[in-house]
């Protein structure tokens, strides 16, 4: 188990969802999905590593993540937001 003394009061330690199982938040930049034993590490504000795959995160002028690309620069996911 992780050392819980490093967490601030009110910070999430784990999440359980019916589709993905339990995820442990071991620090502000490391997560562990227990069901699949997959580690997610936020390497930089603009990159994350899931298992051995690094994904680059591209934000808009409001710092919302809009585009995900892989190591080759190919788009892997796009997020569109509605203006209200």
The biggest beta sheet reads:
8 strands, antiparallel
- Helix amount: under 10%
Radius of gyration of CA atoms, rounded to a whole number: 15 Å
Which structural category do the helix and sheet elements fall into?
Answer: mainly beta
Number of strand segments: 8
Whole-number mean pLDDT: 83
- Content of β-strand: over 45%
- Cα separation of the termini: 43 Å
Neighbour order of strands in the largest sheet? 1-2-3-4-5-6-7-8
Taken in chain order, the helices and strands follow as EEEEEEEE
Total individual domains: 1
- Morphology call: globular
What count of helical segments does DSSP give? 0
Low-confidence stretches: 1-6
Can you offer a commentary on this structure?
The chain starts with 13 loop residues before the first strand and ends in a 6-residue tail after the last strand. With 84 residues, it is mainly beta. An eight-stranded antiparallel sheet has the order 1-2-3-4-5-6-7-8, with no helix packed on it. Helix content is 0%, strand content 50%. It has one domain (4-78). Strand 3 and strand 4 form a beta hairpin. It is globular, with a radius of gyration of 15 Å. It has strands spanning 14-17, 21-27, 30-33, 38-44, 47-50, 53-59, 65-69, 75-78. It has no helices and eight strands. Residues 1-6 have low confidence and may be disordered.
